[in-house]
Every structure is written in C-alpha cells, then in structure tokens.
Here is the input.
Amino acid sequence: MRALSRLWLLSGALLLALSAQAATPLRDDMAQRTLACVACHGEQGRAGPDGYYPRLAGKPAGYLYNQLLNFRDGRRHYGLMTRMVDVLSDAYLMDIARHFAALQAPYPPPAPLANPPSAAVLERGRTLALHGDAAQGLPACVQCHGQQLTGALPQVPGLLGLPLDYLTAQLGGWRTGQRRAHAPDCMARIVQRLSDRDAHAVVSWLASQPVPADARPAPERPPLSPEWADLRCGSAPEPGAAR
Here is the structure.
C-alpha cells in the first residue's frame, strides 16, 4: 500500500511538472530530462519533503553514478528507481550524476527530531562519528566521509543534511542485504558490527548537526589511521573502464 501511494504521488508530481512546462518550449538539457528525478528528490535535487527521498545536489558524481548503477543492476532495491533507470546506459547515468553533482543548492537547518535523544546518546553518536570504537572494530565516520562529514571525492557521500529516518533506513538496508556495494563492501562489514543502540546514537547525532557553509566534498578521502589500514571499499568504474 505504501509503495502504491508513492506511485500515485510520483505520477501526480510528474503531471504537475509537465503541466508547468507546457506553456514554454521544451529544452534539450539535463534539467529538462531529469524532471522525473526532482519530482521526488525536490527542486534541484535538494531532497524530498518527507525525509524518504534523499538530497542529490552537490553529492560526488562518482557516488551518484554508483547508486544509479546499483539500482539498475540490483544491488539496491526500490522498484520505482529501478524502473526509471533499468534501460539507461552507463554513460547516460554518469551524465545524470554529473548534472546533480554540479548543483550547489543551500542546505536547510536540521529538522527537530521527533523524539529528541538524551545527551548521553548524542555524545555516544559524536564519539562514533568522529573517533570510532576500535574495541568493537568500528572506524570513525570521518575516516571515509571527510573531516567535515560532507563527503570526499570521487565517490564518498556526505552524511550531514540527511534526515534521521533516511540514515536509519540505509543502515538497516546494509544489515539486511537490501543495500550492497561493489566488493569489498566495507559498509556491510561495519554495519554488522554496529549494535542497534550505537546505530541509533550515530544517526541521531548526524541528523542533528548543521551543514557547514562550505558543504562541498573534500578533494580526497582522509588518510587511514594505522588501525584501519586494511579498510577497503569497492566502487564502480567509470563508463568505458574495464569492469
């Protein structure tokens, strides 16, 4: 029922978008071609209003391209996304990714959490995000996602500016296998070591943090600390590269 409701919502949004364009000539550019994307992901890919559809604007093109491939090729599962991209070529998916990566729309302030966690929970989340927990085999989020947690080029997404429900759903997706990445799938390994309590703590802290004024991804991932020297994360090659 929930999926059907979203389908009706998407259909209505597309009709509204097309109606708004009817009075003007159609442009042959990526903004015109991606109207179906922004129907759910918000104007310029700033995020949907319900916390379910994440922000696309400004994320690394390599990350967005990876996720489009994952939906098309079955490593991520969401029917509406799969049906929209399953006939598109690698090169065209990269064009879409580069379009949204180039959009530097401002971020809104963090939305208040419906059930504010305690100070102790937020402090645990801050510790995990910034320092990790070596005893539990948990690297800090900043090890891959950049010191400002705004991502790192070419393929690591930012974690700030995302709703609590979305962050929770993605961790759950990795734990259950509904979301996967190219081998070696480092996030799948990490999430299996993360307790429910710690998962709630870290997503609560991340969702409550403001996005810095300069929200661009870092130019590269930070160097790995010695204890995480063996941490490797798989990623998709660019179009035309050997798989």
User: Anything to note?
Assistant: DSSP finds eleven helices and no strands in the chain. The chain has a mean pLDDT of 87.
